[in-house]
Amino acid sequence: MTMQMVRELGEAAHLAARALALVVPEVKNRALMAIADALWNGRAEILSANEIDLAEARLQHHSSAVLDRLALDERRIEKMAAGVRQVAALSDPVGEITRMWPRPNGLLVGRMRVPLGVIGVIYEARPGVTADAAALCLKSGNAVILKGGREAIRSNRVISSLLADAAMGSGLPKGCVAFIDSVDREAVTHLLQLSGLVDLIIPRGGEELIRAVQRTSTIPILAHDKGLCHTYVDEGADLVMAEEIAFNAKVDRPGVCNAMESLLVHERVAPLFLPRIVGRLQEAGVEIRGCPRTRALVQGIVSAAEVDWDTEYLDLILSVKVVGSFEEAVAHIAAHGSGLAEAIVTADHSRAMRFLREVDAGAVFVNASTRFTDGGEFGMGAEMGISTQKLHARGPVGLTELTCEKFIVMGDGQVRDSTK
Amino acid sequence: MTMQMVRELGEAAHLAARALALVVPEVKNRALMAIADALWNGRAEILSANEIDLAEARLQHHSSAVLDRLALDERRIEKMAAGVRQVAALSDPVGEITRMWPRPNGLLVGRMRVPLGVIGVIYEARPGVTADAAALCLKSGNAVILKGGREAIRSNRVISSLLADAAMGSGLPKGCVAFIDSVDREAVTHLLQLSGLVDLIIPRGGEELIRAVQRTSTIPILAHDKGLCHTYVDEGADLVMAEEIAFNAKVDRPGVCNAMESLLVHERVAPLFLPRIVGRLQEAGVEIRGCPRTRALVQGIVSAAEVDWDTEYLDLILSVKVVGSFEEAVAHIAAHGSGLAEAIVTADHSRAMRFLREVDAGAVFVNASTRFTDGGEFGMGAEMGISTQKLHARGPVGLTELTCEKFIVMGDGQVRDSTK
């Protein structure tokens, strides 16, 4: 796709966004329900496109993880449609007056939530993201430009055209769901140059994608970076609880960003705790890479290299370290954590409070699994991803995080006198 | 300054920020009071440095506007110190739990306000920004790296060293107020490469500075762009009120970003309104550049060129356009406004509501002067500038906007079952 073609998509989306910002909730919700129906009714078409994508991916010898992310079946399409209906059911953030206050001169000053405008979503193999991302953007009043991974191009082409047709057919402005139908990387570069037309870029994918986008984009980014999550088992912790939480954080779904990658254990509880948890994790197929003190307590563990403390395995592998103090655990997290989610298991109230305050991450947990780091689990409804940056939104990105607040001011003739 | 030197400042600030984030309000406030005292007690030193800056600027034939921004006197230093004391008196945003809600599984999920980390502030001739910016950053728990304009280098050097000494002397961590003591542009480029150490860059200055920072920075930016503000006088508006508001928006302080640059007048009221407001503005020394319909109604006005509708004069110049409808006014604002502040003068309730909803700007006014676009006037206390971007903060940037919210989650052993 040439720069000119991408720019035209951007201009159409920009125009559409102005109109979409003013569409009432009922119309947006009706469009989302129509989109859900269109996905389900178009499942045969989606699945046959997906089959070709899968065949091609197998020919390219993609990993089983990629193939799994790419593959669709009726159940997954049903889930996709259900996800869109769920978004329709969420309350509409647009137009909400979050606060309003009077000034001594009689002015009423308030803050009104409004859409961001046009959101570019750049993602990888998962075709489900196409419907997801579009639904969240439309509901929050934003036009969306979708750019999926090359592996899923045929699936995404079908899905996005079902989305766009259903949206337009329900009265949403033309151009509000755009799809960059291209497998070359140039197209992404073009998209990232559309500042003034595109208001936000959300890269959803691996570290490499994010870095590339950060280097190139002239548009603000909401980055979902890697998840290097720790669980710290404190001195005096309930070790049964600690075992459940640590096991869950590692094993429940090891391939996702909120899974635990490093376990930190206070030296006082390590002799009792480590043999138990390591045994249980190993039974579940987890490879343990331990610090010297861990290896002294449990036999037959490989040694953790320096690089292990900074590695997001996304797999059944865990690095384990014995620490001498709460402070050492917090310092280790500050040095190696990715700022996504961090947990402490403790029975001590003041250390729980300190952990909440002192650990700088999108989500900080006391006595719960980092696996809960999720918009749905937090009660925010569906999510666009999890932001590891500090600006604009941190942690799960829901509908609200796809809007911004403008000031509104109501007066009856007030003027300002600078000489006063 | 070499890259290595700037990086060292960044590393020190990064370390300082971790400590500063945990400093209690009392200590921060004591430090701010000490800073205010230090500024006042150091006034002789500041003024003699400022005199050399001024002499140099005169030699370089800088404009009187630059000289005015650069010049300090006892009154301005007193105001600077008073500004810092005012910031000390504001309520501390750090640690605030903005919301907390229970989940069905017993988890308590909340949002806690925390500092951003390290903020780099890049500004131009005004040495008062040095104290201002530092006070706002410190109060919100952020370390600050200051990079002022070359014209004010001697004044800024003295001021920032007074700030840093007073901060450290009051128990704030070393390195929390850093000053890039350099007049070369390379130093800015170095600063903009410190992603991972610096969390936010705030460029305060002209369009050229902002564009350069946007092009170069790998760090997120909070941009204070230009202000191209409109006042639209609606059909049926109270013309006495309209005259007061328009006159104030243009004349009260024409050199600032929230001053009006373009006046839009509905054709129904133009014949009555334009002669009055134009006469009064001309008496106040304002040059009027009108559209053809304006020139037909008032004699002796120069013609507005296309470029006038996109020009931020920052001076006693005003472009004036007669529009055929409310919709034309809103469309003109969408096409030419800079997203800072826009105002309508109207007696019609439904058009007032529509203007608030349909106009996309940081601050949207009904029946009041755009000159109120200011953190102080909005009741937010002092401000770091006015953001014209949509991400993170829009409109006046106060203390709250220099923080972010992380999620905190308190449980008693909850784990997640993905199979459910």
Q: What does the main sheet of chain A amount to?
A: 7 strands, parallel
Strand and helix order of chain A? HHHHHEEEHEHEHEHEHEHEHEEHEHEEEE
Helix content percent band of chain A: 40-55%
Q: How are the strands of the biggest sheet of chain A laid out side by side? A: 10-9-11-8-7-12-13
The proportion of residues in beta strands of chain A is: 15-25%
Count of folded domains of chain A: 2
Pfam families (chains A, B): Aldedh
Family (chains A, B): Belongs to the gamma-glutamyl phosphate reductase family.
EC number (chains A, B): 1.2.1.41
GO cellular component, one term (chains A, B): cytoplasm
Descriptive key words:
homodimer, 420 residues, 2 domains, 4-stranded parallel beta sheet, 42% helix
